[in-house]
Amino acid sequence: MEKMYDYIVIGGGIVGVSTAWQLQSRFPDKSILLIEKESGFSHHQTGHNSGVIHAGVYYAPGSLKAEFCKAGVAATTEFCAKHRIPVENCGKLLVATTQQEVERMQALYERCQHNGLDVELIDEQELKRREPNIVGLGAIAVSTTSIVSYRQVTEKMAEEFIDAGGSIQLNTEVTKLVESELKVSITGQRNGEAIHFDGQFLVVCSGLMADRLTRMMGIETDFQIVPYRGEYYRLPEKYNNIVNHLIYPIPDPDLPFLGVHLTRMIDGSVTVGPNAVQGWKREGYGKINFNLRDVLDMISFAGFWKVSAKHLKTGLIETKNSWWKPGYLKLVNKYCPQIKLEDLEPYPAGIRAQAVLKDGTLVHDFLFAESARSLHVCNAPSPAATSAIPIGGYICDKIADKLGLQADTDVSQVA
Ligand SMILES: Cc1cc2nc3c(=O)[nH]c(=O)nc-3n(C[C@H](O)[C@H](O)[C@H](O)COP(=O)(O)OP(=O)(O)OC[C@H]3O[C@@H](n4cnc5c(N)ncnc54)[C@H](O)[C@@H]3O)c2cc1C
């Protein structure tokens, strides 16, 4: 007979691991299993990102993103301090380089104030003083932005989960989910063999596979995950101190992507990127990776065509710049003219899991779906790494509500 777990969490990215760890901390008497198809944690989005603890600049006031990101800054910083994980509070400058961007910068500044962030508008001279290698007409200075390694954060959460009594099954790809009145039955594949688990409640945090696992559970969805590649370059070591802050452009408010930025990484290097181009394989990181199932799913989905048509011009420019390095360089030279073509050294890409609705709407906010015995994280793009602790906390609350549970531990003690 299969062991019946109280809760099962699918997904060894930061959202799944944070959720499993917090569930085990809050409900120490429950048996909790975390299932991941790769041989370790953070193999996908969590291990291929910019490593920024976002302050919450961009997000619509009242949205889950605005709320969780703000709470996530405090929770992540506290978690890292407690576990001696390096964090650098370098701050960030959003630099306007054209008159149109100056207008957008003003609107963004007001949004920051609505979101209760500690930000400052600085003029051209002050920008030059703070960042001698950056040019622009002005900038928003955000003091609370920091950098970290989300791989390291996730590893530590996994350790905490195990120490609190949690179980982990790696190399196990979930292929079938069946919900009945009393349980959820999970079938997986490990080394070509079928493996089964039963749980009273299931949480799915499967990133780029979110739509597939939600449908696998029999939940009707009107969204699909569309993969957008984010391609980076790394600057040579001599440029490790080219900037003092993270340098971002003023983003296009219609797009959920932030624009190619200069990011100081926690290992001391500086990356340029990421751009946003169409991915043809959800979990394929090479430039010309292609997966037939992923492509067929995409081209048979009306939302893909609608969103692509809506952003056709941007998409074509991004694709051109992806293949033509001087075009990519131009995006950085707008605010950092001294970087040359030969300074753009290879660096691994990431792939964003972006939920798109049938009508072509890009889902900006975090999105969840549920059935009687399951909860699915359907859209957790940036800043979900920053927000992973509040997202996990939110899921714990939802489960407690659904199952009528009392937490054994004070939530505030968890981080
Ligand atoms: C280029 C890029 C830059 C970013 N920069 C930032 C940033 O600076 N700051 C920030 O806060 N956020 C950033 N993000 C967003 C952030 O990385 C993600 O929002 C976050 O990592 C999502 O975590 P996750 O756990 O939901 O997904 P993932 O990390 O993708 O994890 C999902 C896991 O589910 C597993 N899985 C899927 N299907 C199955 C199955 N059938 N069976 C078993 N396991 C399965 C996968 O193997 C994977 O390990 C960035 C993202 C990208 C791509």
How does this model look, in words?
- The chain has 415 residues and is of the alpha/beta class.
- The chain contains eleven helices and 19 strands.
- The strands form four sheets. Strands 1, 2, 8, 9, 10, 11, 18 and 19 form an eight-stranded mixed β-sheet that branches. Strands 12, 14, 15, 16 and 17 form a five-stranded antiparallel β-sheet that branches.
- Bound molecules: flavin-adenine dinucleotide (FAD).
- Residues 10-16, 35-38, 43-46, 48-52, 54, 173-174, 205-209, 213, 230, 274, 350-352, 377, 380-386 line the site of flavin-adenine dinucleotide.
CATH architecture of the domain at 1-87 and 147-222 and 358-414: 3-Layer(bba) Sandwich
Q: Helix- and strand-based class?
A: alpha/beta
| Rg on CA atoms, Å | 21 Å
Q: Which compounds are bound in this model?
A: flavin-adenine dinucleotide
Key descriptive features of the protein:
single chain, 415 residues, alpha/beta, FAD/NAD(P)-binding domain, eight-stranded mixed β-sheet, 19 strands, disordered C terminus, binds flavin-adenine dinucleotide
Short description:
This protein is an alpha/beta fold. It has eleven helices and 19 strands.
Write the layout of secondary structure elements.
Layout: E1 4-10, H1 14-26, E2 32-35, E3 52-53, H2 64-82, E4 92-96, H3 99-114, E5 119-123, H4 124-130, E6 138-142, E7 146-147, H5 150-163, E8 167-169, E9 173-179, E10 184-190, E11 193-204, H6 210-216, E12 223-234, E13 246-249, E14 261-264, E15 270-273, E16 277-278, H7 292-299, H8 302-310, H9 312-323, H10 325-333, E17 345-357, E18 367-371, E19 374-379, H11 388-403
Parallel strand pairs: 1-2, 1-11, 2-8, 4-13, 11-19
Antiparallel strand pairs: 3-7, 4-6, 5-6, 9-10, 10-11, 12-15, 12-16, 12-17, 14-15, 18-19
Helix pairs in contact: 1-5, 1-11, 2-11, 9-10
